[in-house]
Amino acid sequence: MKKILAFDSDDTIVVSKMPATAWMAQLLAENLKYRDVCIISGTGFDVIYPNTVAQIEKIPGVDLTRLHIMPTCGTRYYRYQDGEWRLQYQEDLTAEQKARIFEAIETSAKELDMWTENPAGEIIEDRLSQITYSALGQKATPEDKYAWAEANKEKRKLLNDTVKARIPEFEVRTAGTTSLDITRPGIDKAYGMKKLMEATGVSKEEILYFGDKLEEGGNDYPVKAMGVDCIAVRNWEDTAYALKGIAAVSE
Ligand SMILES: [Mg+2]
């Protein structure tokens, strides 16, 4: 029996960095009646909150205490307690580590001609426990990002390898639509799932995970590799149809 449904965020429950639709929020709220729901993302709480959590909060009667929010791959963990979202723990990079990572990304991206001259927002973002490169900037439109991703499939791998060669002591992963996530080694969505299991006492057999990048090398793959049952989706609509079926089966 699955006790927790866990979801990647970008392209699994939302279009990259966009608010969840009312339909998705409704489906998640419906599932919260029967089981816990975890949302794990490479993004920070500042992005997950407005785009997903605030949309779920709008659903009348929703039980927020069954929601587990894990920004930046579970290096932060939020629960709803006494009427507010409370940070349970945080694991951040040091200032020196961050500086090394910033330098490695900028140098590599410039070398490969992947440093956008007029980005929409920051190209490199400090997410405290994770540093993220977004090719077109954090605020690029979904259309621009999908077009870029399509045109730069091979180059993204090259950037990943080049950054990794500069800072081998860190973990470098291709993520989101145009992003590269850099963390301490061992910080990935499997790490987040282990933290979730520790916090809840739930076993990996009791988790069902939804992700759009479950193939080897994708940022959801570590969850599959640790032996959690996974459902591969292409986009949030796939997840919505699956959720509709699951919600209907109450326990
Ligand atoms: Mg995703």
Topology:
Layout: E1 4-8, H1 22-31, E2 36-40, H2 45-57, E3 67-70, E4 76-81, E5 84-90, H3 95-111, E6 124-126, E7 131-134, H4 142-151, H5 153-166, E8 171-175, E9 179-183, H6 189-200, E10 207-211, H7 221-225, E11 229-232, H8 236-248
Parallel strand pairs: 1-2, 1-10, 2-3, 10-11
Antiparallel strand pairs: 4-5, 6-7, 7-9, 8-9
The structure holds magnesium ion.
Concise account of the structure shown:
With about 250 residues, the chain is α/β, with parallel strands linked by helices. It contains eight helices and eleven strands.
Verbal overview:
It is built from eight helices and eleven strands. With 251 residues, it is an alpha/beta fold. Helix 2 links the parallel strand 2 and strand 3. Helix 3 packs across helix 5. Bound molecules: magnesium ion (MG).
Q: What integer is the average pLDDT? A: 94
The main pleated sheet reads as: 5 strands, parallel
State the strand order across the main sheet: 3-2-1-10-11
* CATH architecture assignment of the largest domain: 3-Layer(aba) Sandwich
- Domain count: 2
Number of extended strands = 11
Give a quick set of tags describing it:
single chain, 251 residues, alpha/beta, Rossmann fold, Hypothetical Protein, Haloacid Dehalogenase-like Hydrolase, Chain: A, domain 2, 2 domains, four-stranded antiparallel sheet, 21% strand, globular, binds magnesium ion
